[in-house]
């Protein structure tokens, strides 16, 4: 048994507790929470706040070797150009594996206990199998050329079966509205609806809306230059190409949402009761120097989760750094809301809320300490940092 206490405990479900504590059994399952009456010798007391382990709702582990290799601020089409360049494949397999291992270790050290990881290959599976982090693998389908669609679908099915045979959860998912033919989009969403979960890149840039509104812009030029057919011009924002494919009961993660408007939000919300809006602010700043409208989502009490995206467009895989970025640009969003976005909402999006996301009796969510808090305003500071005090597997934490 361990009793861990701090100046404040943020259970996420319920109000923050001044001098709150959690008691853990030997497997790190929470057996009690409360307010500290008397500090006994056996109580571990920390200067900071206690929160559940973080859930990184969007990452691409297999792009970890691209850290510091992509030129920033090139816009989405510029980023896609860099992703498709031969430089991406120059690192040998051993180097790519080492980079993924280091990325997984960084996430552990940053208090991340669960992640939604997008994959195009089998390269990340072994790292995930050996990690205490819970990973759901989203096997991604993308392609505008109709001829290659069926072959890609078959490969994705094999990848999903492969990762599932290793004891990990996985499902097939579409990449984005702008990068897929009609048949491939239909096949990917059919598989995702059957699995009950989908994670799709949505409205990451203005270029995407432009493509669907008028068939012009930087994405259109990129695709035409590569000889790809363009997706249909619909005269509406890109999100409307996705909505008809998604069954209402499917847990849906819309990722990025940089150009989502109030009207787009209402249209999606009215159709999809299990929708989570995943924000990746540091990645958006890196690629296009823009931020998602976090205030729009906050004002509507929307279910928001947070992702780091990959090291190709971010220098860290750290949820606290994402929260600092949001706090800097949206200081009106209070800390309890940001913490819920980074924990419980991500757990719900990945269908893991019974285990992770809040400090409740019976859960084993991981216990995270955040130090260097501005207690008078109850806000993060630029020096706020994270320590995972108790993991989700009952093992001691190795620092
Ligand atoms: Zn992504």
Characterization of this structure:
- The protein is of the alpha/beta class.
- The chain folds into two domains: 2-51 and 362-390, Urease, subunit C, domain 1 (Roll), CATH 2.30.40; 54-349, TIM Barrel.
- Helix content is 33%, strand content 25%.
- It contains 14 helices and 15 strands.
- Strands 1, 2, 3, 4, 5, 14 and 15 form a seven-stranded mixed β-sheet that branches. Strands 6-7-8-9 form a four-stranded parallel β-sheet.
- Helix 3 (125-129) links the parallel strand 7 and strand 8 (134-141).
- The longest helix has 17 residues, at 93-109.
- The model has no long low-confidence stretch (mean pLDDT 94).
- Residues 58, 60, 118, 201, 255, 309 line the site of zinc ion.
